[in-house]
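Homework help thread (please don't just give me the answer)

Our assignment gives two proteins as sequence + structure token strings and asks us to describe the second one. The first is just a warm-up. Here they are:
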Amino acid sequence: MTIADRWLLPDGMDEVLPPQASRMEELRRALLDLYHRWGYDQVMPPPAEFLDSLLTGTGTDLDLQTFKLTDQLTGRMMGASADVTPQVARMDAHSLKRQGPVRLCYCTNVLRAKADQHQGGRSPVQVGVELFGHAGLEADGEIIHLALASLQAAGAEEVHLALGHIGIYRSLAEAAALSDEQESALFEALALKSPSQLAQLVHASVSDPAIADMLLALGELHGGAEVLSQARERFAGAPASVTAALDQLDALYQGVLARFDVSLYVDLAELRGYQYHTGMMFAAYVPGYGHALAKGGRYDDTGRAFGRARPATGFSMDLKQLASLALVSPRSGAIWSPAKQDESLNAAVVALREQGERVIQALPGQRTGPAEHDCDRRLELIDGRWQPTALTQETSAS
């Protein structure tokens, strides 16, 4: 191994340097403060859990993303957290056991076995909110509102929001009496946006012509508000749950339009998170990024395995990517202190730091000066007192 090889990071793992690290921390604080004002309590889930707890109710997708290891104390298999949402669902159901609606938020590192094509690399800093205990549209609307407010706080100027509802596909698949294998194949065809493959599978698997036409229509129903009207026509005679899902999407669509200046898009074949979600789903996009910066939806009853089935809805984002939305300038406004052992100087430095000032004290023999450390002032002894003075071109080099 060469010396250069020792410094290589694994694919998908990245480090965060100044000033981006400072930007991330500022944004983390801003988002958690935003969620606090909405009544969300912060939680900090562990970085690893036993697999039978960590992967409960999440389907195979998260299983493939989870790094697995053996607990040396018990011999049981553990997993590094690849998605905080199931952990927060466990905390609501098993650890907190509160009555009524519960609002929780988080911001923590996660680790993924492979890069997520929809949301960045293998070491995101996942930030998000979860609302448990309310099955109504009001809860879904609140979650979408907070997701859009989060993007605004991060500096997003042009947001495109895609809405969908997994219940429509689930209801049609159930009405078609598909086997698990047939349903999985049909799901793949819809996810790939392949009309020919979809048509071939539907004709081979669905005997009811009316249901077959509805499943084929799923691949065509994407666009603006007109999609919801078209869907009501195409799904006339569908199970009542399909009509209910369209009503929910319509209400959410109108609610977003009334509050936000965003571009709205409806996609009834958007099935990302199929094994995980149970109702409405959404994804928020920003120009310049090929994947959603925020995504979420309803995932009822995830806590059932922990003895407490609860309605649930929420969203998550990668703080690293959010922090890249706005240009970051190097921090300025620091005060340079000379390298002297002087009690009055030390007292002045302590006082300034207590006031919130950034003070950088030189070390003996240091060759770099205030300019290299982005200082715009320096401490000088004036009339017997150490005071900050503005840097000039001459003094900035010393």
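The one we have to describe:
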Amino acid sequence: MHRLSSGGILPILALATTLAATPALAQETIKIGVPMELSGRFVAYGSSGKRGVEFATEVYGGKVAGKKIELLVRDIQSESQATISVFNELVSKEKVNYIIGPIGSPTVAAAIPAWRQGKPIWLVPGSSSTKLEEEVGGDPEFFHTFPYAYNYHESISAALKNQLPAGQKVAMIYTDDNYGRTHQPYAKKYLTDAGFEIVLEEIVRTNAADMNPLLTKIARAKPDVLLGLVQTTDAVTLAKQIYTRKLPVPYLIGTAATQLDEWQKAVGPAQEGWVGVTTYLPGLNRPGNKEFPKLFPPSSEWEAMFVKKYGQEPDFEDAGCYVSAMLLFLAIERAGGDDKEKVAAELRKMDIPNTLLGRAKFVSTPSGTKQQAFTDMVVFQRENGKNVMLFPPGPETKKIKAVSY
């Protein structure tokens, strides 16, 4: 029998101690992947999404189920290849059980194959594309916390029907990407159902520098309403060129970009009169939650906290990612730890009234998403540098105004 010297025993004991301690150390934190568009085309979405998750982590206290919350924030650069690389790292290397993000429809779509390699719980607080619903809506690990395209256009059409006379003529301009092509048929359906006449539908290349040829066609059609199914830089280009040529269309309708501080600063006076649709708007005065008053205070109090910390008003993804992160933290707390299946079960059982986005309850959609929360949207108009509520009807609702140059 071979005998080990004391010099051989100590290193082995040290190694054994280290190995024994490693799992315990690994369990001291709960990892949450936060892949966001922190640069590139969708930076306005990703930067606010990151802010929302980080703010939620701070308000929650930095720990959940007795363990430190570790946010693995990654920049996916608004590009498909970078998105795939980041998801591969988070799913295969970091082996996270939870992911929040990204936001943009193209980047979310690019992430699907890499996500499927491990299927962590995936909260998607963005992407209105119904192609996402078709591909992963039925997966039990997929939780969508943002409206789909049909929710957008149901709200826009209802607002215009409520505000304008029947039979108004509508022209549409939409981008040749996932966003524009997804929204166009729903916009057409809901506007037609609401009694509007579609007189023109024009497609524009993404990142087109000159939209004037299309605007000339629109001017000839003499519509009462122009609906721009474009986002980010395309929304800036469209607004600026409409303003420069003083396009004679009384009502200009946008989608998510209209609320963004980046869009408003980029287009300057061209923002006046534009109508937008969103999930959250400062000044909504939504009530707080009595069970979780610290996590979900009245929206006015939450906005004051946000402005104090960041020096600016929150936008819809600040609120959306804040709420999504809070729901995940509560589910982990209720599950008693980092057990993916138990956490998913707790998310499915969740029913919390009066969050910043309204009632938090995951339900199935007629189109195939098993776990969908938050489909209510508000329609507003930019007036003198402020947001004026147009829909749904209520005490603060104002009458839509025609654009005047």
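TA reply:
I won't write it for you, but here's a hint about the kind of observation we're looking for: The first helix runs from residue 6 to 26.
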